[in-house]
């Protein structure tokens, strides 16, 4: 089955805003075996929107609209759908009372304009909104279904999941989707694709998607089958081949980010981590502590951005720093060593590099980063040359440092 | 004048990808006084796309398509436009030779499939592509204009700027756009709107847009006028009223982010900055060093995430920490004081709080953050309660710390 999605709101036609509801909805629809064949964004113009609705219903049996359900004059989705379908809008005393109660429970009085939200399109079923005052609407037409959802994601998502998903699933031909999701580090996107393209290309089902961020690649497999078992077998067959080829480059098969995986490894060993950061200036510590509960394995560290801080906070020998230069193997090693020593952590990571855009260090190309790792087994450092761009270099450095620790812990 | 934008590509209908070309194009079109009334995304399906093109040309006099100009069978934009307009596709030996030369200059041979890119829609003008092999096309129709651009932004943007902008400007009624752009900190979005809505609401021109991130609000004004002077006078009139109302909450009128503004203030005073970070664990240092050249004012600091690190790295008294609790005024003050002392910086910022999602500190509500500031004039700390969400709390804390320093420096 095919579907179209229309996002409504003049703010979504400005250079600043993008409709992301349709991404989330597409994911849910794909899982039901529904393909999205067109997405549109329209402003708060009733006639234009009514025209777009009429057009969409000539093409597809399922149309989902998001947004334009608020209480103001600008919110015209209800009116536009009614106009396109030549149906009336009917005031529902029941919905009005329900909205009034929301206001009362918040200790406020319902404004007169909120009555606009109590109008249902003739023949529509009301979709309750657990997180706001705008109810959604579900319309069964002779030729298809129209679903109207509010714009704010925290209202739209639970409404779709609680009030639409089960009914849609019942109406649709049975189709089962099973997925695999691998996160990969320590390899570039094109190298990864060269490795696994010969494996996944012969498969039209599962569909393989590769997404790359700085030093972090995601491989998605989506298999369709008549039964859940058939879909799972297909996903597993291709998935296992890809896993075998990528080996320990795969750091997560359940979606966990790298800092969580590393944190779990440290926790399982009763080990702790410290950092010493020059060019990343704290980003590595910030990343490690994105996971709640990180205090079980992350102690802290040193932001030694200025050269003098390497001496002052970490006790590095001033002459040695001058001799080797701050972006060097010797300094990366000394930083990791000292951070481990001064914090009492089991492991310490250090980062020193030239993030650019210009080189502040003569002879050091922007993108050059030394990463050090001190552990009970000793200390070592590796040199990397990351793709240009100040923030990119720093993100690559953080991801790569975490991956070095993961490899050490394996 | 109104315009529509159609982005072509099946990958743009997956849950992972979003069309961003239309944001850039909308910005350019708005500057020309053109309003975008609908944006659509379609996959690589010729009939569907031809239908969408026919529909758009019934509504607006300017249609821009992006994507689907590659050399493969999937790339069907040329064919779809020809089909919608009932025009033929004509092979251009000249374009073919131009594409061949690109391959030759890269030391490669043109593939047979690239010949597809040498077909022009009857009556179209070729738009040269300085960054790729896909030429664009410009079509003058009795009722309007169709512009076809490649999908990759680095090909699309220069093509539009170099080959389309001047012609469009000539054809359009003369309209001048002038803007104002204010960045604001230290106030919430709804409080800000309550302050300035009575000022900007009476103005239909300039158009006012407010965008909010964690602790960082942007106010955009866009004024239209028959002359540049008229537009600028309008933008200035409203802008000055808003500036007067917001006062020193406005930290930037040229788009500079807060870390750049603070960095410039420190540099102008020959002053330096250090940090001591608990719940942010390095994010403040990471943010300060997003600006290149930050080593002129940022020294470094301490990531004292674990409680023991506050004693070990900053020398805080263990009993005092236990007595006050780590999330307290006394500890925020002691952290800032010690960081300033141990680094020798002119100023030091400290952050200690409960980012959540759960409270690790009995009696401390998640979202509670103490921010300390030590300066030559003394040391003080302030308590904040930020909206829930671990990453949100941490981003708010970073922004608020920088803003405290800005206010101190003013």
Structure write-up:
The structure is a homodimer of 410-residue chains. Chain A is of the alpha/beta class and 410 residues long. Chain A folds into three domains: 2-171, 3-Layer(aba) Sandwich (Molybdenum Cofactor Biosythetic Enzyme, Chain A); 176-252, 2-Layer Sandwich (Alpha-Beta Plaits), CATH 3.30.70.2860; 258-409, CinA-like (Maf protein), CATH 3.90.950.20. In chain A, 39% of the residues lie in helices and 26% in strands. Chain A is built from 14 helices and 17 strands. Chain A has helices at 21-31, 46-59, 77-85, 93-105, 153-163, 165-171, 189-200, 228-246, 258-268, 283-288, 307-312, 318-324, 329-343, 390-409, and strands spanning 2-8, 35-42, 62-66, 89-91, 119-121, 125-127, 136-141, 144-149, 176-185, 207-213, 216-225, 250-252, 273-277, 298-303, 347-353, 368-375, 378-385. A six-stranded mixed β-sheet of chain A has the order 2-1-3-8-7-6, with helices on both faces. In chain A, strands 14-13-15-16-17 form a five-stranded mixed β-sheet, sandwiched between helices. A four-stranded antiparallel β-sheet of chain A has the order 10-11-9-12. In chain A, helix 10 links the parallel strand 13 (273-277) and strand 14 (298-303). In chain A, helix 9 runs parallel beside helix 14 (390-409). The longest helix of chain A has 20 residues, at 390-409. The radius of gyration of chain A is 28 Å and the shape is elongated. The mean pLDDT of chain A is 93. At the A-B interface, helix 1, strand 2, helix 2, helix 10 and strand 14 of A face helix 1, strand 2, helix 2, helix 10 and strand 14 of B. Strand 2 of chain A pairs antiparallel with strand 2 of chain B.
């Amino acid at each position: 089955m095919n579907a179209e999605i229309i996002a409504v709101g003049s703010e979504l036609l400005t250079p600043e805003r993008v409709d992301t509801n349709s991404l989330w909805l597409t994911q849910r629809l794909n899982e039901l075996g529904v393909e999205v064949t067109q997405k549109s964004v329209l402003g708060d113009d009733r006639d234009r929107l009514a025209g777009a609705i009429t057009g969409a219903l000539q093409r597809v049996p399922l149309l989902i609209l998001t947004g334009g359900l608020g209480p103001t004059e600008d919110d015209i989705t209800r009116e536009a759908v009614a106009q396109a379908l030549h149906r009336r809008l009917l005031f529902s005393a029941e919905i009005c009372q329900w909205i009034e109660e929301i206001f009362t429970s918040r200790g406020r009085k319902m404004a007169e304009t909120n009555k606009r939200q109590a109008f249902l399109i003739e023949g529509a079923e009301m979709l309750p909104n657990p997180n706001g005052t705008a109810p959604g609407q579900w319309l069964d037409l002779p030729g298809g279904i129209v679903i109207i959802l509010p714009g704010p994601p925290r209202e739209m998502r639970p409404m779709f999941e609680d009030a639409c998903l089960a009914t849609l699933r019942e109406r649709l031909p049975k189709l089962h989707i099973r997925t695999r999701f691998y996160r990969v580090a320590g390899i570039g996107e094109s190298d990864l694709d060269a490795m696994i393209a010969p494996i996944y290309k012969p498969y039209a089902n599962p569909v393989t998607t590769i997404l790359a961020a700085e030093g972090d690649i995601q491989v998605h497999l989506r298999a369709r089958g008549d039964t859940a078992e058939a879909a799972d077998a297909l996903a597993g067959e291709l998935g296992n081949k890809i896993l075998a080829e990528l080996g320990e480059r795969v750091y997560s098969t359940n979606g966990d980010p790298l800092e969580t995986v590393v944190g779990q490894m440290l926790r399982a060993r009763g080990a702790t981590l410290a950092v010493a950061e020059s060019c990343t200036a704290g980003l590595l510590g910030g990343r490690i502590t994105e996971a709640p509960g990180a205090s079980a394995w992350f102690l802290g560290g040193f932001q030694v951005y200025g050269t003098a801080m390497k001496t002052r906070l970490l006790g590095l020998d001033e002459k040695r720093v001058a001799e080797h230069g701050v972006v060097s193997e010797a300094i990366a090693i000394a930083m990791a060593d000292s951070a481990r020593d001064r914090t009492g952590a089991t492991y310490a990571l250090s980062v020193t590099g030239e993030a650019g855009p210009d080189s502040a260090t003569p002879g050091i190309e922007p993108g050059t980063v030394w990463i050090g790792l001190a552990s009970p087994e000793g200390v070592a450092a590796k040199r990397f040359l990351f793709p240009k761009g100040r923030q990119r270099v720093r993100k690559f450095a953080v991801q790569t440092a975490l991956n070095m620790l993961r490899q050490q812990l394996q």
